[in-house]
Every structure is written in C-alpha cells, then in structure tokens.
Specification:
The complex is a heterodimer of chains A (about 110) and B (about 120). Helix content of chain A is about 0%, strand content about 55%. With about 110 residues, chain A is mostly beta strands. In chain B, strands 2, 4, 5, 6, 9, 10 and 11 form a 7-stranded mixed β-sheet that branches. In chain B, strand 4 and strand 5 form a beta hairpin. Classes of the chains: A mainly beta (about 110), B mainly beta (about 120).
Chain lengths: ~110, ~120
Amino acid sequence: GQQVMQIPQYQHVQEGEDFTTYCNSSTTLSNIQWYKQRPGGHPVFLIQLVKSGEVKKQKRLTFQFGEAKKNSSLHITATQTTDVGTYFCAGPWGSNDYKLSFGAGTTVTVRA
Amino acid sequence: KAGVTQTPRYLIKTRGQQVTLSCSPISGHRSVSWYQQTPGQGLQFLFEYFSETQRNKGNFPGRFSGRQFSNSRSEMNVSTLELGDSALYLCASSLAVNSREGHEQYFGPGTRLTVT
C-alpha cells in the first residue's frame, strides 16, 4: 500500500486564491520530491527537499519539509489556470533503497 | 538532450495475450524505473533497473517482468493480459545510484495499454 499519504485528493480553487496540499509519511524520509502532471501528460519533477525544515520557493510555489522529515507541503499563491493538474509527492520507502512511493496526488482545478 | 522515449504510445490487446513495452532513457542515465498509473490506484512502482540488474520490484504478480540492456534501454513484459492491466505505463530514468540520493526522475510520455 501507499507509504506516503497526500491530502486533499481534490482541490477546486478560484483563480487568484491560495491553496496548500499536504504529504505525510509513516516513516522518516531521507528526501521528498514533488511532481506535477498536467491532464493527459506525464509527471514532471518540480523540487526535491532533503534537509529537516527546508523551505524552497519556485515563483508562486512554496515547498516545505517538516522538522521530523515525515511530512511536506506545497503551497501555491495566487492560483492561475496554468496550475491545473495533479501534484504528487514521492519519497523512498522500504528496506531497499530503490523504490519510490508516490502519494495519491492532489488534483487541482481552477475556476476562472 | 533528448528526453525519455517510450514505444509504442498506444496499444490495444485482448485478454490472454502478452505485450512488450520499450523505454529509452536519457543518455547517461543508468537507472530506469517502471510505473503503472490507473485512476483507482494512482502511480504504482513496478520495478527498477540499474546497469542491467533489477534492484527492486513492486507488489505485482509474476506476469509482469522486465529487463535492461547494456545501453540502458529497458523493456517490460506483461504476459497473460487481464482486463485490470489496462493502464498508463510510465518509464522514468534517473542519474541516481539509489533513491535515497534523491535524484529527480525524468518520465517518458507513457504507453497507454488497453486490454479488451
């Protein structure tokens, strides 16, 4: 099953508003990654967080890694129609290093 | 630099048949992972190869198999297809020696498999 839980599953946002999607792990993660998948497309890497409490910004997107390295968040300000898509978090899990577990994703729709 | 390519892009098969999907990673990437994406189960890890060795496998039945060649190109095979195998199969390549290094994965466009 999923090792990384993501909420909410759906986010309907008015253009110009802010929203946040959350990612929670049952275990401490060495790193966490975020991807965006546009409708009909494939996942595209956005960012990677490694350090406890790390915060990274990409224009209107702010990514945060929790102090315990068990949770992460993506906050988007002033949502635009270009933000439409599904946002996934992903982290390594299990005793083997080579598996990446993806959250179920947050699908974002924007009302103009 | 060319991205990850996958062939074919679309495929229609009938139950009981087998299928082989191909993935060419970004030049220089030796790690190739395969994922199955369905509306109900999301992105599920199938397996990962590095330098022709399968390093890990997800929770899929033995009907799902794969391999990697010396040029890092990878194939996955699904035998005795079932209706539930209908999905988007994504291949991703990475520079990572292991996922704990956290290297980003570059995804291909995927192969849309429909089983009837």
